[in-house]
Design goal:
The protein has a single domain (5-135), classed as Pnp Oxidase, Chain A, CATH 2.30.110. It is built from two helices and seven strands, in the order αβββαββββ. The chain has helices at 5-13, 55-63, and strands at residues 16-22, 28-38, 43-47, 65-76, 79-93, 107-118, 131-135. A hairpin with a 4-residue loop joins strand 2 (28-38) and strand 3. Strands 1-2-3-6-5-4 form a six-stranded antiparallel beta barrel. The protein is globular and about 45 Å long. It is mainly beta.
Protein backbone atom coordinates (compact mmCIF):
# COMPACT_ATOMS: atom_id res chain seq x y z
CA UNK A 1 0.00 0.00 0.00
CA UNK A 2 1.29 3.46 -0.88
CA UNK A 3 -0.31 5.40 1.97
CA UNK A 4 -0.08 4.70 5.68
CA UNK A 5 -3.26 4.08 7.67
CA UNK A 6 -2.84 7.48 9.36
CA UNK A 7 -2.45 9.24 6.00
CA UNK A 8 -5.61 7.55 4.68
CA UNK A 9 -7.58 8.68 7.74
CA UNK A 10 -6.21 12.20 7.39
CA UNK A 11 -6.96 12.44 3.65
CA UNK A 12 -10.51 11.19 4.25
CA UNK A 13 -11.03 13.87 6.92
CA UNK A 14 -10.09 16.81 4.70
CA UNK A 15 -12.08 18.48 1.93
CA UNK A 16 -9.73 20.88 0.19
CA UNK A 17 -6.38 20.55 -1.48
CA UNK A 18 -4.20 22.56 -3.82
CA UNK A 19 -3.21 21.32 -7.25
CA UNK A 20 -0.19 22.69 -9.07
CA UNK A 21 -0.01 22.29 -12.85
CA UNK A 22 2.38 23.49 -15.54
CA UNK A 23 1.33 25.83 -18.35
CA UNK A 24 2.65 25.06 -21.84
CA UNK A 25 5.14 27.96 -21.45
CA UNK A 26 6.49 26.45 -18.22
CA UNK A 27 4.85 28.83 -15.75
CA UNK A 28 3.05 27.27 -12.80
CA UNK A 29 -0.55 27.47 -11.68
CA UNK A 30 -1.80 26.52 -8.21
CA UNK A 31 -5.53 26.15 -7.61
CA UNK A 32 -7.53 25.26 -4.50
CA UNK A 33 -9.80 22.30 -5.30
CA UNK A 34 -12.15 19.78 -3.77
CA UNK A 35 -11.11 16.16 -4.18
CA UNK A 36 -12.02 12.57 -3.54
CA UNK A 37 -9.46 9.95 -2.59
CA UNK A 38 -9.66 6.22 -3.31
CA UNK A 39 -7.39 4.39 -0.86
CA UNK A 40 -7.76 1.21 -2.93
CA UNK A 41 -6.09 2.69 -5.99
CA UNK A 42 -4.22 5.51 -4.25
CA UNK A 43 -5.62 7.97 -6.80
CA UNK A 44 -7.16 11.38 -6.25
CA UNK A 45 -10.00 12.72 -8.41
CA UNK A 46 -10.48 16.47 -8.78
CA UNK A 47 -13.80 17.66 -10.20
CA UNK A 48 -15.44 21.03 -10.42
CA UNK A 49 -17.79 23.33 -12.23
CA UNK A 50 -16.71 23.70 -15.89
CA UNK A 51 -13.64 21.53 -15.22
CA UNK A 52 -13.21 20.59 -18.91
CA UNK A 53 -12.72 24.24 -19.86
CA UNK A 54 -10.43 25.13 -16.94
CA UNK A 55 -6.76 26.04 -17.38
CA UNK A 56 -5.69 23.32 -14.91
CA UNK A 57 -7.54 20.67 -16.95
CA UNK A 58 -5.84 21.85 -20.16
CA UNK A 59 -2.45 21.97 -18.42
CA UNK A 60 -2.86 18.34 -17.33
CA UNK A 61 -4.01 17.34 -20.83
CA UNK A 62 -0.90 19.03 -22.27
CA UNK A 63 1.77 17.52 -20.04
CA UNK A 64 0.29 15.43 -17.21
CA UNK A 65 2.59 16.75 -14.47
CA UNK A 66 1.08 17.70 -11.11
CA UNK A 67 1.81 18.29 -7.48
CA UNK A 68 -1.05 18.11 -4.99
CA UNK A 69 -1.09 19.17 -1.33
CA UNK A 70 -3.61 18.59 1.44
CA UNK A 71 -2.73 20.46 4.63
CA UNK A 72 -4.12 22.04 7.75
CA UNK A 73 -3.20 23.41 11.15
CA UNK A 74 -4.02 20.85 13.83
CA UNK A 75 -3.12 23.40 16.50
CA UNK A 76 -1.83 26.95 16.77
CA UNK A 77 -0.62 26.55 20.39
CA UNK A 78 1.64 24.78 19.90
CA UNK A 79 1.92 25.42 16.16
CA UNK A 80 1.34 22.01 14.52
CA UNK A 81 1.16 21.68 10.74
CA UNK A 82 -0.05 18.50 9.04
CA UNK A 83 0.32 17.85 5.33
CA UNK A 84 0.47 15.25 2.59
CA UNK A 85 2.12 16.25 -0.68
CA UNK A 86 1.73 14.14 -3.79
CA UNK A 87 3.99 14.45 -6.82
CA UNK A 88 3.06 12.50 -9.89
CA UNK A 89 1.23 12.40 -13.14
CA UNK A 90 -2.40 13.06 -13.92
CA UNK A 91 -5.00 12.35 -16.57
CA UNK A 92 -7.50 14.85 -17.92
CA UNK A 93 -10.61 12.65 -18.25
CA UNK A 94 -13.72 13.87 -20.05
CA UNK A 95 -16.96 12.14 -19.10
CA UNK A 96 -20.64 12.80 -19.51
CA UNK A 97 -22.24 15.06 -16.97
CA UNK A 98 -25.05 13.76 -14.81
CA UNK A 99 -28.37 15.34 -15.78
CA UNK A 100 -29.13 18.29 -13.52
CA UNK A 101 -25.70 18.11 -11.89
CA UNK A 102 -23.41 21.06 -11.19
CA UNK A 103 -20.36 19.46 -12.79
CA UNK A 104 -19.55 18.85 -16.44
CA UNK A 105 -18.32 15.28 -15.77
CA UNK A 106 -14.65 16.02 -16.43
CA UNK A 107 -12.08 15.08 -13.79
CA UNK A 108 -8.37 15.26 -13.20
CA UNK A 109 -7.15 11.90 -11.89
CA UNK A 110 -3.87 12.11 -9.98
CA UNK A 111 -1.57 9.07 -9.85
CA UNK A 112 1.03 9.44 -7.07
CA UNK A 113 4.70 8.78 -7.80
CA UNK A 114 6.08 10.40 -4.66
CA UNK A 115 4.42 10.88 -1.24
CA UNK A 116 5.72 13.37 1.31
CA UNK A 117 3.93 13.71 4.65
CA UNK A 118 4.53 15.67 7.81
CA UNK A 119 2.85 15.65 11.23
CA UNK A 120 0.22 13.08 10.28
CA UNK A 121 0.88 10.21 12.67
CA UNK A 122 3.41 11.70 15.00
CA UNK A 123 2.58 12.96 18.50
CA UNK A 124 6.08 14.28 19.24
CA UNK A 125 6.80 17.91 20.02
CA UNK A 126 6.23 19.96 16.83
CA UNK A 127 9.93 20.92 16.64
CA UNK A 128 10.91 17.23 16.68
CA UNK A 129 8.70 16.16 13.76
CA UNK A 130 10.33 14.76 10.65
CA UNK A 131 9.33 14.54 7.01
CA UNK A 132 8.32 11.11 5.68
CA UNK A 133 9.15 10.87 1.98
CA UNK A 134 8.93 7.84 -0.31
CA UNK A 135 8.41 6.79 -3.90
CA UNK A 136 5.32 4.82 -4.78
CA UNK A 137 6.20 1.24 -5.65
CA UNK A 138 6.00 0.56 -9.37
CA UNK A 139 6.82 4.10 -10.49
CA UNK A 140 10.05 5.58 -11.66
CA UNK A 141 12.06 7.62 -9.19
CA UNK A 142 11.13 11.26 -9.83
CA UNK A 143 13.78 13.88 -10.28
CA UNK A 144 14.25 16.25 -7.28
Amino acid sequence: MSFTAAEIIYLASQRLGRIATVHPDGTLQVSPVCYTFDPGTGCFDVAGISMATSRKFHNVADNGRVAFVVDDLASVDPWRVRCVEIRGHAEAIKASAEPGGRYDGAIIRIHPERIISFGIDDDRDPHELTVHSRSVVGTAEPSP
